[in-house]
Every structure is written in C-alpha cells, then in structure tokens.
C-alpha cells in the first residue's frame, strides 16, 4: 500500500493529525492496531468494553520498587473511546516551564489557545445540563467546608439531545468521521511492527489481523510518517525500528490512589449522570476527584477490605469511589526479545510516595467533611477510617509495592523541544536525524500535565500538524 502520509495510531493525537493532513489534500492512511468499533458497541465502563477496547483487557503494569497498574485504549479512537472526557486546557505555568527547560520554540498558552479552540469546535466541551449527581456534590461540599477550591470539570461531551445521559465526544464520533470525509483511508486491526527507510521513502511493516480471516503481513510506503501509538507504544515502535535517542527514557504517569467513601444516605443512584467535580486546591502537587462507582467497581476498589464486602451488598447506594492523583513516577520503556509488549520500569522516589500519602489524607478529610461515615482506602494493610482522628494516624508515606497505585494518564516518553540533551524531537515533533518522521501523541508532552491530558494532547497535535502542513510539506 502507498500514501503520501501514514499516521500510526488513531487516538486523540493521531486522529487530529490525520484529519489536518487529509484536509490539506494529502493522501493519508490511518493505521490502527485495535478494532473499528462504534462508541455504542459496549456499555461504558463494562467488562465487555475492557475486553474489546483496552490493551490486554486493561492489565498493564509498570514494575519497580513501587508498581503502577496502568491502562491504555486499543481501538479506533484510542483512549478517547474509553475515558471520561474530563477536559482542561494545559495550565499556563506548565507551558512556560516546558518552554524554559525543554526549549520548545513558540510555545505559550496564548500561542496554543487557537489550537485548543479549533479542537473544541469539533469535539465539543460542555458542562452538565442540570444537577450534578450526589457523589460529585458531596466532594464539592466537603471541600467547601474546608475552604478548598472544588469545581465542576467540563467534559468532551454533548449533553441534551436524544440520549438522556448525553454523548461522549470521542475520536470515533468527531475527528475520525471528519478525516474520512476529507478522503482519508482508515485501516484497523493492523499493528505496525517496524519502520524502515529506503529509496527516500518510509516503509511500515505491519500485521493485519482481521476478525474473519487469517493474519496477513502488509507493507505500507509513504513520504512522511506520524507515529501516534500512545506514550508507551510509540517509544516501543521507534526503538524496535532502531531509533533510540532520548526515546523511551522519560515516561511519566499521574499515579492514583482510590478510596471508597460510605455516607449515611443514598448518593449512588442507578441512572445518575457521571460525577464531575474535582478539588484543585493542591495542584500541582496533587488533584482529587470522583470516579464511576458502579457496584462491580465498588467491589474492586474494596478488594483490600474483603471482610467488609457485605457492606457493599447492603449499602452500595451509599457508597462512592474517589481518587487522589499526583504528577510523578518517572519510567523507561524498553523492548524485550520475544515479548510483544515493552517492559516499563518505574521509579517513584520518597517525595513522590509522600505526596500521594498526603493526598490520601486530604481526600479522606474532604470526605469526612462531606458527611462520610467510613472511608476505605484501596491500600493493602490500611484500616477502615471512621473519623478525622483515624486520618491523622495514617502513615506519612507508603511503599506502593502492593499494586494499589494505578494510572490512566501516561506521557512524555519522547519529549519535544530544542534541548537536544533530553528531547527526542524538535519543537514541532520531527524525530531528530530522521527526515519525514514525526511523533504526534502524548509522548511529545514534556512532562505530566497535572490536569486531565487529552485536551493538551489534541492541541499540541493540532499545532504541530498545522506547522507541518504550512511549513514542511510544500
Ligand atoms: C481509562 C482512561 C480514562 C481516562 N480519562 C481521561 C479523562 O477523563 N480526561 C482526559 O483528558 N484524559 C483521560 N485519559 C487519558 C487520555 O485518554 C489520553 O491522554 C489520550 O487518549 C492519549 O492520546 P494518544 O493519542 O497519545 O494515545 P492513545 O489514545 O493511547 O492512542 C494510541 C492508539 O495507537 C494504537 N496503537 C498502539 N500501538 C500501535 C501499533 N504498533 N500499530 C498501530 N496502532 C497502534 C492504539 O491501539 C491506540 O488506539 C484517560 C485514559 C484512559 C485509558
């Protein structure tokens, strides 16, 4: 197969990039390892969704002295299909820091705002129409009683319309249809295994695995390639292809700890809208929020309190899941012979772990202020907390080795910028010393975003694709 441009990976970074290139009149092939499924093909946050749309059915582990269990999307649309769409623009101080340390040219909030707006006009951002669910407002009210700032996070969502709960603005609902309308071609069920260069072209060696036929190797040739496989798989693909300079050395997570809070009245009613409030008082150290709290998820979050499972049977409607999320946990990505997935090794230092432990205490404080009667931390060996006094007695740190730390946000494994000592690409995503090869996903971000990252991934992809179309392709 041939194309002017191949984009590998159809998550927010890849879908935005492919759309802009196709609309610029290029012949573009968007290659995706996972299946091409509609947003409705599995109920949100269900076992079916885990099996169909997550890599390894949701089981990926970064190993090290403290472990992080993380998840990645693996379907057309990538993480945008399975996430909650909580949305923020990157904070200004962060972009200023990236410009100063990584020497990213022409990066500031002012310069990025047109790209945020352009993405937001295709994938709409909205606040809830009507009242927030009680799981959400309890967190807001608890924070307010402590004098902390808590706000509703807007979402990549279109509320109203025919569906009572609204409709998520995932890539398969927004940028992918726009890409196809511009004449782009999408090939799903196809994993890129290696990139090579010869005869002035890039070649992608891939394996096409259709649902109803045998696997078939294919090769695609193109003038330009954008790699957008996500922050773990992008460095893995580039390293398999012999490209290693500053690639896969600086992956970061937003490590997360969860708790279940039990209240003295119902807060968790079937049919409620998703919870949306976040406490931002302690950023950039850590942020807090509420999670989807369906009954099976309560079971999972209570796994370290198995002798209290009967409470879920009796009182699950009084229970909600909450999280604290920090910005830390540096990791490397390396391939291992004979293994399909790369080895991710993570190091969380003492300060990282203390930050999470402190965040856990603050979260429990907010929940008791909101009227919780019990808080169950999802940490092995931790007791059920019944009062502020119990919160004060929690240890100042923890080991993180029991698998209690999880993450859904990964970035910065191949940072962009002019600082050649630490950056994998130039300031606009072109891989150093590799003409016509670009990175276009969360790998490019120079560090953790502190806030939910998808908005920043899309805006940076939009910025860099605009730059490529205007200055590099002619
Ligand atoms: C459960 C969950 C909840 C989240 N919640 C939020 C939230 O509320 N708000 C927010 O802002 N962010 C959230 N995120 C994070 C957000 O989804 C990611 O930041 C975003 O999807 C990253 O985009 P990306 O383009 O870098 O990569 P991805 O979305 O990971 O897309 C990469 C794509 O590349 C494909 N791919 C990988 N390797 C290959 C290969 N070799 N060949 C072909 N294709 C390949 C993958 O299958 C995948 O579809 C969440 C993520 C998850 C998983």
Automatic annotation (TrEMBL):
Keywords, sorted A to Z: FAD, Flavoprotein, Oxidoreductase
Pfam families in UniProt: FAD_binding_2 (PF00890), GMC_oxred_C (PF05199), GMC_oxred_N (PF00732)
Keyword match Flavoprotein: yes
InterPro entries (alphabetical): FAD-dep_OxRdtase_2_FAD-bd, FAD/NAD-bd_sf, GMC_OxRdtase_N, GMC_OxRtase_C
SUPFAM superfamilies according to UniProt: FAD/NAD(P)-binding domain
Glucose-methanol-choline oxidoreductase N-terminal domain boundaries: 73-96
Family: Belongs to the GMC oxidoreductase family.
Name of the protein in its database record: GMC family oxidoreductase
Organism: Mesorhizobium qingshengii
